[in-house]
Amino acid sequence: MSQLSVKHLLGIKNLTRDDIELIFETASNFKEVINRPIKKVPSLRDITIANIFFESSTRTRLSFELAEKRLSADVINFSSSTSSVKKGETLLDTVNNILAMKVDMVVMRHSSPGAPHFLARHIEANIINAGDGTHEHPTQALLDTFSMRQHFGSLKGLKVAIIGDILHSRVAISNIFALQKLGAEVMVCGPNTLLPVHISELGVKVELEVRKALEWCDVANILRIQLERQQIKYFPSLREYALYYGVNRTLLDSLKKEILIMHPGPINRGVEISSDVADSDHSIILEQVENGVAIRMAVLYLLADSPPAN
């Protein structure tokens, strides 16, 4: 297989295992490219890509932009805070105006779940979901699982605990789908108020005590508390959350084994994770950032050669 089965990357749920393996293989090749003195290739020289972010983002937007420039694409950056969206322009009108400038691909982040799917039904350009509300964040899940595979060789039978604000996390859902497709076992852990009611129906284990989750897992993917998405209080205070669910060095050292520590960022140091864990030898957080560029290069490259829509 040398081509993705999809025209758009809307979510992990839409990918096959073969798609994921192809993305990983391509990302491995691009990782070699970005670690050499000349980091640019002409793969997307005739492609124009629009990064359309209706939500604030630093790491994901910069990672996509760097990936696009490494592939020699022409890049347009769009921010809703300085656009006609403020004047009442609709999502479809905004994107159609951008496409009228002969844009080939759209990378989009939006606060509404399903926004990329809506666009994919109405426009011809390839759509890459860079996060839609609390729904999915597929490239984050791909870079997370790619990073795990680099360390373990295979994800089959690997025990991965996703710890933190599961209720508001698009990273958690995409990771669950990706890990299960690759044969890993998944556990979610957090306060009862931050766990979706029917989360166990996705085939994951559920644990309310962080120590038990850490004792069970080989990898802990720690999520931040997404206060910007919380309309009500889900726990008494950040201090209490850190006390009961924060992962610190004392807790890690008390385990009878070593585990890999991951975090999609941005980190709330001293809340969900302490600095001495985030910066420790257990942590591969900076590797995740590096792998994010390679994974996004792979996705962009493969979608540019994707099959036409049915």
Entry summary:
With 310 residues, this protein is of the alpha/beta class. 38% of the residues lie in helices and 15% in strands.
Pick out its properties:
alpha/beta; four-stranded parallel beta sheet; 9 strands; Rossmann fold; 2 domains; single chain; five-stranded parallel beta sheet; about 300 residues
Helices and strands in order:
Blueprint: H1 17-34, E1 48-53, H2 59-70, E2 74-79, H3 91-99, E3 105-110, H4 115-122, E4 126-132, H5 138-152, E5 159-163, H6 170-181, E6 185-189, E7 205-207, H7 210-216, E8 219-222, H8 238-245, H9 249-253, E9 260-262, H10 275-278, H11 285-304
Parallel strand pairs: 1-2, 1-3, 3-4, 5-6, 5-8, 6-7, 8-9
H and E string: HEHEHEHEHEHEEHEHHEHH
- Give the helix tally: 11
Strands of the biggest beta sheet: in what spatial order? 7-6-5-8-9
Radius of gyration over all CA atoms, rounded: 19 Å
Largest β-sheet summary: 5 strands, parallel
Low-confidence stretches: 227-232
Helix content percent band: 25-40%
Distance between the termini: 19 Å
> Which structural class do you get from the secondary structure elements?
alpha/beta
Strand content: 5-15%
Mean pLDDT: 90
CATH fold title of the largest domain: Rossmann fold
Q: What is the CATH architecture descriptor of the largest domain?
A: 3-Layer(aba) Sandwich
- What would you call the shape? globular
**DSSP strand count:** 9
Give the CATH level 1 class of the largest domain: Alpha Beta
**Tally of separate domains:** 2
CATH superfamily of the largest domain: Aspartate/ornithine carbamoyltransferase
